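Complex 429.
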Amino acid sequence: MTITIIGTGFVGVVSAAVYASLGNRVIGLDIDQNKINKLKKGQVPFFEADLEELLIEQQKAKRLTFTTSYQEAISQSEIIVIAVGTPSAPDETADLRYVMKSAESLAPYLQKDAIVAIKSTVPPGTLEKLIKKIKKQSKVKFYGASLPEFLREGSAVYDTLHPDRIVIGAQDDFVFKKLDQLYEVFKAPIVHCSVASAQMAKYTANTYLATRITFINEIANLCQKNGADIEEVINAIGLDQRIGQHYWYPGLGYGGSCFPKDVKELAAYSRTVGEEGNLMNKINEINKQRIFDLLIDFEKKVNGFADKKIAVLGLSFKPNTDDMREAPSTKVIPYLISKGASIKSYDPMANYEEFTNEKHKEHQQVANVKQAIKGADAIFLLVEWPKIVNFPFPEFKEKRPQTIFDCRNQLDPDEIKKAGYQYVGIGRS
Ligand code: UGA
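Predicted structure with uridine-5'-diphosphate-glucuronic acid bound:
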C-alpha cells in the first residue's frame, strides 16, 4: 500500500518508519523543509529508542521517503494519515488549526477511494468538519476514518509493533477492510467502531490512566499522614485481579505531552457539551497543584532551601526520552532557585537550557550522578532512569547531613537511612 503520513512529529515519524517496515511504501510529508532535510539524512530531531536505525533502514530499502510536496505525496496515496500537532488552545480545547490546514492542502490531489484518517488526538465532530472542508475542494469519492494512537514515548517503536489493540473508527466496510489489511500483520485485536467512539476511546484511555495516577497520589498523601507505606498498600490492593499492580506508581504528578493536554481537552470538551464540573476538571486541577504542595512539605524537612546545594536527578518527564514537556524538573528547578538554592542537575538525555531557554547561574547541568551529588545537602530523584536508580547512593554518603527526596519511590528506604541519609519518599516514611 502507498501511505502518506502528514506531520513528522513524534507519532508521524514513528508510524512512518513502522508502516514502511511492514512492507508498505510510505511518504512522510511536512511543511517544515528543515525537518524534512534532516529526516532525509536519517536524522531524527528527538531521541527515541530504535527509531533512527529503523528510519535509515527503511529509507535504504526505498520504502520510506520524505517530502514537502502535497501534490507528490497525496496524488499517489491510497491511505493518508494525519498526524499533525493539536496543541491546546487558550480555552484548553484542542486547537485544530493544523489538522484543518492539512485537509485544505491535501484536498486538490486526492485520488479516487483514498482514505483520509486522523491519528492526531481530536474531539468528536472533528472528522466531519475535515470531510466538509475537503469536499469544498475535491470532487473525487474519498473516505474518512479515525485511527487513534496509543504508543508511549520511550517505547514507541516497540508499542507500534506490539499494540494491545488497534482501533478503527469509520462508517464504511470499504475502510474497515482496507485498514484491516494494513494492521492484520500485528495479530492484535482490531476494534471496529464509530468515528466518535474511536475518538472518545483515545481520550478515555489517557484520562483514565491519568485519573488512576492521581488517585494513587491522593492515597499516598493519606499514607504520609498515618504511617502506612503506599508501596505496601499497592501490593495489597494489586493482588485483587480487578485492580492489578501495574501503572500505579505514585510521584509528583503525571507529565508529558499527552496526559496533561488530553485531560484538559476532555475537561474543556465536557464544558462545551454542558458537563461542567465533572471529574476531568478536578483531575487536572489536582495534578497541577500537587507538585507545589509537595515542595512546600519537602522544604520543611530540610529547614528551607535557602543556600542549600541541591542535586536534581532526571530532567525529562520520564525515562528513555529527552522530552521535557510538563516534566517535574521544569517546576522543581525554578522553585528551588526562587527559594535561594543552587543546583547541579543530571540527565542521561534531556537538556534543561535547550528546552526552557533559561540559563540560571544557580543551575549547572553536569555529566553524571556522582558530579551532581558531590557536596549536595539534598538530592531530588525525579526520574527513574536506570543510571540514576541503580547508582550506589550509600557509598557516596558524605559527612554533612544529606536528604534524599525519592520522588518515584525507587530506592530502598532502609538501606538509604542506614547509610545516614534522611529519606523522604512519596507516601512512605
Ligand atoms: C501516554 C499513554 O500511556 C499512551 O498510551 C498514549 O498513546 C500517549 O500518552 C499519547 O497520548 O500519545 P506517555 O505520555 O508517553 O504515553 O507516557 P506514560 O508512560 O503513560 O507516562 C505519562 C506520565 O504519567 C509520566 O509523567 C509518568 O511519569 C506518569 N506516570 C505513569 C506516573 O506518575 N505513574 C504511573 O504509574 C505511570
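Residues 145 and 365 are 45 Å apart (CA to CA).
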